[in-house]
Target: Glutaredoxin
Amino acid sequence: MSDVQQRIDELVKGNRVVLFMKGTAQFPMCGFSGRAVQVLKACGVEEFQTFNVLEDEEVRQGIKDYAQWPTIPQLYVDGEFVGGSDIMMEMYQSGELQQLLAKA
Model:
């Protein structure tokens, strides 16, 4: 495992809810990242870890390999990849995301 993959793995496994995004929860730098933050807040998640991929090019590329998922944002809950903002929105609308996060 490369250094960047190990760093990502530690972030994912060391936090219950992690969102790799462009920008921060307070200042999202793209619409998809902003929507992902809004969905988490709508689910009642008050504390979650974010990682701004715009500040670290290695992680920005490495996270795509880590999950075998080509886009950002990426949500992880309890060490498992959940998906990007479209999947988060679909899961939210069906109630599935709230159930997953209630366990977290």
User: Anything to note?
Assistant: The first strand starts at residue 17 and ends at 21. The chain has a mean pLDDT of 95. Residues 3-14 form the longest helix (12 residues).
